Structure formats: C-alpha cells, structure tokens
Amino acid sequence: MSVPVETIAEEMFKMVTEYQGKKNLKALDLTKAMIAKYGDAECSKDDCKHAIRQLMDSGRCVYSYFGGSFITLPHKEGAAPE
Amino acid sequence: MADKKYETPMLDELEKGPWPSFVKEIKKSTDISPACQDLLGVLEVSYEDKKNHWKHGGIVGVMGYGGGIIGRYSDMPEQFPEVAHFHTIRVNMPTGWFYTSDALRTLCDIWDRHGSGLTNMHGSTGDVIFLGTTTDELEPTFKDLTAAGFDLGGSGSCVRTPSACVGQARCEWACYDTLAACNDITQTYQDELHRPAFPYKFKFKFSGCPNDCVASIARSDLAIIGTWKDEIQQDDAAVAEYAASGLDIQKDVCGHCPSKCMEWDGQKLRISNRECVHCMHCINVMPKALRPGKEKGAAILIGAKAPIVQGALLASVLIPFVPAEELLDTIKELTSRIWDFWGEYGKNRERIGELIQRVGMANFLDAIGLDPVPEMVSAPRDNPYVYFKAEDKI
User: Fold this and answer.
1) What's the pTM value of the predicted model, to 2 decimals?
2) For residues B135 and A80, which has the higher predicted lDDT (pLDDT)?
3) In Å, how far is B24's CA from the nearest CA of chain A?
4) Which CATH class is domain A5-72?
5) Domain ranges of chain A
6) Of A55, B51, B200, B341, which has the most beta carbons under 10 Å away?
7) Chain A residues with CB inside 8 Å of B136's CB?
8) How distant is the Cα of B267 from the closest Cα of chain A, in angstroms?
9) ipTM greater than 0.85, yes or no?
10) Could you give the 3-state DSSP secondary structure of residue A34?
C-alpha cells in the first residue's frame, strides 16, 4: 500500500525544518529523499508532487529564489526593508 | 508630468535623439505613481556608481505559487523609500500575443491600481511584465488578474511561460498550428509552470516555420520548428514574373542558398529538394512563386540557451520531422523522458543543453530511448558527435 500523501508531506516538512539555515533544498531533493526512504513502489514522484503542493497551499512552506528555486519555511526576508 | 524630485543629468541624455526612450516613458508615468520618481533617482545613482542598487530574489510570491513574481528590493531604501520594494510580476500572455483593446485596458487598469503603472510589453520571456510593486500588493494584484482571466507566468526553476509565433492565425508559412500547440502545452504543464521542481528553467517555444520568429533555436530548451518533408511548391509562371520585374534570381535567390540546391538558367528555376535544408530564404524572396511543401509538420530541437551560468548554446535536432497531427503526443512523451533524465542527473542551475554537453549527446539519446539519425549532425561531414561502428552499417 502506498504511503499517504499527508505522511510524505509531514516527512518533507521535517526535512525542510531540519535543514533550514544550513542547506537550501529543492523540490527534487525532497522527492529523491522520500523515494529513497519509502521506495518508488510506495512513494511515486506524483505523490511527492502532491505532498509539496499541500505544504505550499497550507502555507507551512514557501518557495524561495536564490539563483534557483528552493523550498523553505516562511520567514522574514533579510533583504526586505524594515 | 510631476515636478522633478531628483536631478538626473545622465538619464536625461537618454531622452535625446529620435529613438524611443524608457526614461521619457518613466517620466510620463510620474503622475500615476510616486515610485517612478524614486526609480529615476535610484537609476541615476546606479549610473553614477556604475553598480546595480537592486537586491534580487527571496521568498516573495503569491500563496501556492513558486513562479511569476521576481523579488526586488532597493539597497538604498532610506534614500528612495518609494522603491524600497519594487517587485516584478510576470503575467502569462495570450498565445501569439493577440489581445483585444479591452484586455489591454484591463491589464493597465489593474497595474495602475496596484503598482507603478510601468510595464514591459513584452519582456524577453514573452510575458507581460509588470514592473514594480510592494509585497502587500502582490496578492491583491494576483486576485484581480485571475478575476480578469489572466494567470502568472513562469520564473525560477520551472517551466517558463511557453511562447509561440502568430502561426496559422496570421502567417501563410506556418506548417502547424503553433497557437494550439502552445496553449495545449501551457495547460498541460500548469503544475510545472507554477511550482518549480526542476534543476533550473525549462523553455518551450513554438515556431511555425524555419524563419523561427520566436528565435526558438537560440532561446528554448525544447524548440518546435515547423517544416515540411516533401518538395517546395513552385509556380513557374510566378518565378518568371519575378524575373521580368527585375529580381536577379541567380544573385539574390540561388546565390544565397546555403546548400546551393537551386539553379536558374534564365528561364527555369530548378530546385534539388534532396539537397534543400529548408532555410526559407528562397521562399522569403519569392513568396508568390515558392511555398513550403504539402507534407507539413515540425522538427523538434533541444538544448538552446542564452548565456547566464555558461555561454550560449544553439539547439540540436532531436527529431527531424514529426507530422503535424502527431506533434503534441510526441512532445509530451519526449518531454516526460527528458525531464526524468534531467531530474536524475542535472545539477543545480544546469540547463538541459548543458547537461547534454556534459554527458554527451550519444549518452543522452540512449537514456531517452532515441536512435541517432543523420539529421542530428549539426554540420554534416564536419563534426559528427555520434560515432557509428562498422557493424551499424545500414
């Protein structure tokens, strides 16, 4: 039985939280990590895509751009004026 | 035009001469938005300092989307408070850039309400570009745009807004329906357009014929260029009319043919279609006498890009000819295989063309399941990058 999308989203969220401020993660990094963890029979690329969408639509994560697009936790931007 | 807030002697120089001037246009917009005055101020300082005063990137965007908003902050917010935030919004243009005047007014009204009023029509991506707004105005602008039937375009590591030439709507040379193909691909890849999931950007561009009016061969990761498979359609009476009206067919047509596939004996134009490389030159010079063939479709090319991280690349032929009716299915099947390979092996900020250069075209073709064909050689008998073994002899 495949892993529920909510579980994948939760795992991804933990990963983003753990790496926050240390390494910028791309959607592909999260997808590869989830497939490595659960196996591609239990966790497809489409499942990962839906999980990322859940994280974005709920506002738990946001996209950032620093030369490429990354997934990060919402935060006050360093570049933004006070 | 509002009174000058800053002295801008260097920018003023750019208003001189008979050419269109972006400085003149920004000055005209100072009545609409106070940001325009500060924009001129910060630009003058940039010219004096010979450095850019914008900070680019960050997390600004609209809920759920990872593309379409390009964050810009000034690094001199105290001096130029009206452009402390000056974010750009990319709006997905209608395919082929066809608008009603009502649609254009709607876009401009939305932007006058929420931003600086300044636009690029269009940016080099093809999108409508709204230049300059604050973070607080992003969601309201997006809401108004979607209510009017528009959506954001692509930015970041995603599918960029696909673009197409005017195609069969306005051009008799179009060998397939570029507008339909571009719209279909835009709708199919909405998720990939709005939610960046790639190593870097990926661009589709659709040109109806080898004139390539959207420069797809130079600027898109996947270029779809209309072409034909049979012989150029030729009207000998019309060729004679061109000659009678003074066209030097030998010099201006045959003389510029890149493959020297045509001969003019003063009476009859003979085309060796086998040697023709479909450059369109002869058709462009004698449009009433020559036309593309009847068996129409497109060539699919891969790997072009403008210089950013590395230098510019021109596209390489991937499939020399796909009949028009099979085109969309072929593009989608091919795209899925290309993205799988790119996702697996592409490095951060590596375009597909750069990946192909790194791993070699032969390995790339093997990975996506395509056999090499002679048309993939960019300069025949000169630089083949696919080496055939003796046992491969056909």
Assistant:
1) 0.91
2) B135
3) 29
4) mainly alpha
5) 5-72
6) B200
7) none
8) 60
9) yes
10) helix
